[in-house]
Write a structure and sequence with these properties.
The protein is an alpha/beta fold. The protein contains seven helices and eleven strands. α5 crosses α6. The mean pLDDT is 93.
Length: 235
């Protein structure tokens, strides 16, 4: 079984909106709804779990009813960090009897640009390797920051990749990552991503096809970009 865990528990303060970024409405529809629709339309995805900001649970449930999302089986309260939200999602899936051999795909609620080609490629690689992310080469020049407004060291961009969601995992392995992260007291000190935790644990991250357009909405400019994208679709 393929389960998608969509994280909608963040505040998104860098956007500067009056609500978490995943609930900003574009064309009268929340960004989260566009993200959900990606997986609602994919015939390889069996069910969806939403991990939601606690103050927006009622809004989220009303949104699900409004748009008739049939694959959403669970809405779970998020934590106050990325890692705690993922753990809440994992614990609920354990309670629901998700099997070790099932696959769980983690997606940001404010990542509505993900294509079906990316989703299917991550599914294929996860089934083959036990985990996978989507990634692209670094096309821009990269250098290290020396001060707030200067750089003195160039980096070879060919040595780097840019990782994006969805992140796919065999469920038993995902549970193991967080068990080891807790045992090694890493959950509160590594960057807030499952892949960062994997790197801290010394695990290998497998990556597959990606697209530069698959961005996570983080800034006001990203919101405006998605608004132009949606308006273009509706022309």
């Amino acid at each position: 079984m393929n389960v998608v865990m969509i994280l909608a528990g963040g505040v998104g303060s860098r956007v500067g909106a009056d609500r978490p970024k995943q609930f900003i409405e574009i064309g009268g529809k929340p960004i989260l709804a566009y993200t959900i629709d990606i997986f609602e339309q994919n015939n390889r995805i069996d069910c969806i779990e939403i991990v939601c900001h606690h103050k927006w649970l009622v809004y989220c449930k009303n949104m699900i009813r409004k748009y008739g999302f049939s694959k959403i089986k669970w809405v779970v309260e998020g934590g106050n960090t990325f890692q705690k939200s993922v753990i809440n999602g994992i614990n609920h899936l354990l309670q629901e009897g998700i099997c070790d051999d099932d696959f769980v795909y983690i997606q940001y609620g404010a990542a509505p640009f993900t294509s079906q080609k990316i989703v299917n490629s991550v599914i294929d690689m996860t089934e083959k390797k036990g985990m996978a992310v989507t990634a692209t080469p670094c096309y821009q020049l990269i250098s290290k920051r020396t001060t707030d407004d200067s750089s003195c060291e160039y980096c070879n961009r060919d040595e780097f990749i840019q990782i994006a969601c969805p992140y796919g995992f065999r469920f038993e392995y995902l549970v193991d990552i967080y068990n080891r992260g807790r045992k090694n007291e890493l959950l509160d000190i590594v960057d807030p991503h499952t892949t960062s935790l994997m790197y801290a644990l010394g695990d290998t991250v497998f990556y597959t096809y990606g697209e530069q357009s698959n961005i996570k909405i983080t800034t006001k400019e990203d919101v405006e970009l998605f608004e132009h994208f949606v308006n273009g679709l509706n022309v």
